[in-house]
Amino acid sequence: MQGGSSGIGYGLKYQARCISDVKADTDHTSFLTGTLSLKEENEVHLLRLSSGGSELVCEGLFSHPNEIWDLASCPFDQRIFSTVFSTGESFGAAIWQIPEPYGQSNSSTLECVASLDAHVGKINCVLWCPSGKSDKLISMDEQNLVLWSLDSSKKSAEVVSKESAGMRHSLSGGAWNPHDVNSVAATSESSIQFWDLRTMKNVNSIDRAHVRNVDYNTKREHILVTADDESGIHIWDLRKAKVPVQELPGHTHWTWAVRCNPEYEELILSVGTDSAVNLWFASASSDNQASERSAEASRQRVNPLLNSYTDYEDSVYGLAWSSREPWIFASLSYDGRVVIESVKPFLPRR
Amino acid sequence: MATEAAPMDEKAKRMRDLLSSFYTPDPSISTPTSSISTSFDNINGPSFDADQYMDLMIKKSNLDVLLQRHVQMAAEIKNLDTDLQMLVYENYNKFISATDTIKRMKSNIFGMEGNMDQLLHKIMSVQSRSDGVNTSLFEKREHIEKLHRTRNLLRKVQQFIYDLPARLQKCIKSEAYGDAVRFYTGAMPILKVYGDTSFKDCRRASEEAIETIIKNLQTKLFSDSESIQARAEAAVLLKQLDVPVDSLKDKLLEKLEQSLDGLQINPDEASKLAEHNVSSKDEESNNQGPAKIHEDAVRGFSEAMRAYREIFPDSEERLFKLARALTTTHFENMELYIRKRVSAADFLGIFRIIWEDVVLMDEVLPEAALSDLSAEAAQVTLKQFVARTFSHLQQDISDTLLKFDINQKEVVDGEVLKVVLEASGKAEFRQLLDENTGIFVKMNDLLIGWIQKGFQDFFSEKIHAGLILVLAQLSVVIEQKVIPRIAEEITASFSGGNSQAFIPGELCRVFHAASEKLLQHYIDTRTQKISNVLRKRFKTPNWVKHKEPREVHMYVDMLLQQLEEVGKEVKQILPQGTFRKHKRSDSNGSNTTTSSRSTTLHSDKMARSNSQRARSQLFETHLAKLFKQKVEIFTKVEFTQESVVTTTVKLCLKSLQEYVRLQTFNRSGFQQIQLDIQFLKAPLKETVEDEAAIDFLLDEVIVAASERCLDVTPLEPPILDKLIQAKLAKSKEHNNNNNKTTVSS
């Protein structure tokens, strides 16, 4: 396969796990990434792809008090983002704002908008409401799901509702349904749970153990993609969630994360601990009549794996499509290397 | 008169001569008499010269003579003049008369033309009249001739009819019914029309004879001892004799239907049949077996069908129905038969019999589309059979597993697998696939599809992981051995174009893919198990508040036990690969690099513990990584014991590393990890072919732990050693205890 020769690289100082697309920045293709270092001073890097698309420029470098386990950019304000961090002994989550004249001082400090301090245990992730303008947030620890309302002008976040998933289900992550702002999918030890935010109840679930990552298809309603440790990638149709619509082999080792392309509904990216990023073409339609044919078709069709980017030195944990230029994605390997790649040669013909 | 006649003659002659000389200018033709006279003095000669003559005369003669001569000549001239005058006159006369005649003729001819026309007309009319007469008479003449011929014929017929009874009798005696029927049917119309006349007796006699013939024929038709052909002929004859054939046909077909019962393969006898079919292959001499009988019966049946088809062309539909009924009953019986447990050989034997039957019948009734019908039916049956075989196989496996589970689980597991491998793979499927009866060629793809489906169904039910390995190996066997064999046999038997139906390359690919998938699946299930162990290990304790390590943790035992299990299974099923170290020739080099790196790490960690050092240490790690070749952790799995074990171990260690990276450790937590890994090092290296990779991965775990550790202070080597020795001693003791308990039990 093609090596990473086409990719644009950028090195972080320390190890890192998370990278996020800055969706609110409509003028540039930007990404936010934060380091994971237990002992050093952690940093948040704001990276911007130069207009020619040939260079990745560090637009801003901000110090962050603790190692960052999760990072998500606010969908409506490019200066706001959330992090989940750990001091080594305890976890915390916070909303940060990039200071106004950023980029001048080398290591300007971040402004803390709000601290999401309703958690006790290990916090997994913070989700921003995908609808765009809404100021709702969800934070998740192993047992609880907390819905926040953010007021960025007042610099405060209030708990709207909080619900415990129970001791048995240790939650590990989730995704907010872009087609239904009241629905959130959360992965737990033994299943994928679907929460209704109005009632804060677990309304539905798919029994599937050890799901590591989940993502909604933004283009096709009811389609959900999950990544497992062992058995790769599964595509589900939520209307008939007994069996997956399609299975993809995933990675040689764990499949760590999956992301559906925001524009091209068939494209799926996955990253794995086998130091590779795989680009998949999943054409399985959700139609009833196609279910049987698709099984046959998928057998006949050529490999759904369009490309495997293997030029990484360590496990790849971070992955983000650019919403501005949907053929561009950023990947982040554990050794702190950000690689921007373009999937243009693999785009399906329209 | 005579004297006068002479001069007259002379005169006439002279005149003629003159005339002729006048008319013919050629002197040579002049009469010979003139040539006799002297040339000069002959006054009649052509060369007469008057002057010379005169000179001569004067010289020779005297006056008297001369006078005489003069007188004479004057007289002659006078004579000549008159003669000429006469001639002219005569000629003129003649001319005149000729003119007159011509004139007359002319006038006469004028009238003649009309007469001629009249004449022609009359002649024509005469001719037409004569034609008319001729034609009017012709019909009658024809008629007379016809009548004459008819009379002759009638005479012959009469003779024939009179002879008929005698002839029929003769035929009956000699059993030449065909001739008899021919004669009779020939005579029938005559007898029908003129039966009441003089032929009355003849008719009665021949009818009686025919009566007996019909009787004879009917008995012949229904007698089973007669050959089918004879019976068919009888039927034809009867049909010719206007005997109601439909009822006959119905009767016969009913009989045929009854005979179908005899042809059915009784489920109970089927096994015998099949057995015999198999055994008759071995001993050709024994031909009296039920299979042979059955074959003969079917052959007879098909021949009968052929005959009936010829006899009753309108009965095809029914024959079709019959043939189809036979085929369907065949397959129904087959289904009944396979409801019991049947070996593939028996199944195939019966299948072959049925197929042969179908082929026989198909020859006779190609329109009945029997082969299609039977192909469909066979498909269904085969599907059922495959399904059944699978259920049996499954049952077998579960039975054996259950049986052995009660006894000694671990030890016998391998044996079970072997049994299964032998039983399932070698016997059933290979035989199924080996078969190259025409129908199988058509269905091979389907068959393989079902088998694969079967395999997949296998997975869904949670069956021992080892079984998956067996199946993987089975696929390899099929891919490598069975398919080439089938391909060979097929090309041998179908040298023609039929081979597209079976594409060995495609099948090989399918099976290869299947085997790889199965192997992958095996490794997946195995690593999944181990992964679960690891997950529990890393999720449960609070690593940040870990206590000082006292001993090697339990999970290491479980890990090794799992790996050992894998090794055991793999050893029993997969072939041993050619032993080799690491792929890269410089594996030693990388080995030393790694170890040296880890030692520096050790010493570093020992010497310094503040954060600055840790930072430089991270830097060093990166630097080391840069210079070190990337060890290929995820190489392609091969079908060897070593490859599978290595892959499993690698995947587990990678998982271990990932779990470590997700945690944060305090000093003791790190030390615990360090201890566990140190303990793992030796046994893992023993089991695994690729030592360099294992070293690398184990080091990676340590590095990951140190990176995630708040306070990196490795255990002192002596303490490490002591704890490991303690563990080893303990496990030895444990083993001994185990052995003791097993011995005592």
From TrEMBL, chain A:
SMART domains: WD40 (SM00320)
Key words, A-Z: Repeat, WD repeat
Domain EIPR1-like beta-propeller per the UniProt entry, residue ranges: 5-280
Matches recorded under Pfam families: Beta-prop_EIPR1 (PF23609), WD40 (PF00400)
Domain of life: Eukaryota
SUPFAM superfamilies referenced in this protein's UniProt entry, alphabetically: WD40 repeat-like
Claim: Translocase is one of the keywords in the record: no
Protein name: EIPR1-like beta-propeller domain-containing protein
Species this chain originates from: Brassica napus (Rape)
TrEMBL record, chain B:
Matching InterPro entries: Vps51 (IPR014812)
GO biological process: endocytic recycling; Golgi organization; Golgi vesicle transport; lipid transport; lysosomal transport; protein transport; retrograde transport, endosome to Golgi
Assembly and binders: Component of the Golgi-associated retrograde protein (GARP) complex.
Name of the protein: Vacuolar protein sorting-associated protein 51 homolog
Positions of the UniProt region annotated as Disordered: 274-293, 577-612
Family membership: Belongs to the VPS51 family.
Function: Acts as component of the GARP complex that is involved in retrograde transport from early and late endosomes to the trans-Golgi network (TGN).
Organism: Brassica napus
PANTHER family linked: VACUOLAR PROTEIN SORTING-ASSOCIATED PROTEIN 51 HOMOLOG
Gene Ontology CC annotations of this record: cytosol; EARP complex; GARP complex; membrane
Composition bias, Basic and acidic residues: 274-284
Alphabetical keyword list: Golgi apparatus, Lipid transport, Protein transport, Transport
Chief place where the protein resides: Golgi
Location in the cell: Golgi apparatus, trans-Golgi network
Organism lineage: Eukaryota, Viridiplantae, Streptophyta, Embryophyta, Tracheophyta
Biased composition (Low complexity): 587-600
Keyword Oxidoreductase among UniProt keywords: no
